[in-house]
Amino acid sequence: MSNISASMVKDLRDKTGAGMMDCKAALAETDGDMEAAIDWLRKKGLAKAAKKAGRVAAEGLIGIAAIPGAGALVEVNSETDFVARNDQFKDFVKDAAGLALEAEGDVAKLLAKKMGDATVDEVLKGLIGKIGENMSVRRAVALAVSPGVVASYVHNAAGPELGKIGVLVALKSKADTAKLLALGRQIAMHIAATSPLALTPEHVPADVIARERAIYADQARQSGKPENIIEKMVEGRLRKFYEESVLMQQIFVIDGETPIAKVIEKASKEFGAPIEIVGFVRYQVGEGIEKDNGDFADEVKNLSGQ
Asked: Which residues neighbour 261 within 8 Å (Cβ) at sequence distance 6 or greater?
């Protein structure tokens, strides 16, 4: 059995909200496998569903660039939020977003593009040397649609088209561009708030559905009901899962009552042309990156040289 450290127990507790002893037991039962331990706790009814991304644990900014029919997101990470508020850093992220659009979301192509007299990669290295903190262009993505628009939204804005959460939504339609952009921005705001896993149930990865189904089945069997009833219980919970996790089935946060699919249907009638959401992307700074959360007092002591 793997050695279960206190930091592993704390990490599992942070991700699930379960008690320390329950987290320790879960890790012991699963030989230290974090994802399996989360499932073990959920099956026991001791934890809520944990988002795959885990805790947000890195600093930096999301940059957005958009032109008619296309848009791009880029995430640039830094070690501290202090650097993320630096004007030079902000300018770099903003320029990188524009180049990410040209590079069609390909990070390797983005890093090789010219930013002034040097490449993006060279400018970034120069910035690292000047500021004295490690930074990286972590990821980039681009969306395009024709006819239609790519609408955008940034949350926790640190400047024009810069923030901690960035969203792109591609709406395919021949409707009025201004109306589509206004609708798209509202949908993007919804996505920023709800973080859907996929556009429709068919877009949810098969392994995610299999995992949820297995957990729901184990939970249902604890009721002692027969298998045919358990299957119905599982299907009911999956429907609830889709309503919470799939964009087109989520309730629009702006009015609190209409499924997104109905919002699009209503807008299509009002705008006089069919509208289809063909894609969306949501970036949040640091999602999925684990960072050492050491004792703050010890950190200050180390920095002071005491």
From this structure: 248, 249
CA 181 vs. chain centroid, Å, equals 22
Distance CA 144, CA 30 (A): 43
Instruction: Name the region of 136 (left: φ>0; alpha: ψ -120 to 50; beta: rest).
Output: beta
State pLDDT tens for residues 195-250.
999 999 999 888 888 888 888 888 878 877 777 887 888 788 888 888 899 999 99
Asked if residue 148 lies in contact with residue 167, where contact means CB atoms within 8 angstroms, the answer is no
Residues contacting residue 159 through CB under 8 Å, at least 6 positions apart = 90, 94
Output the pTM of the full model.
0.74
Going along the chain from its start, the domains and CATH numbers come out as 1-50 (1.10.8.10), 59-198+264-284 (3.30.479.20)
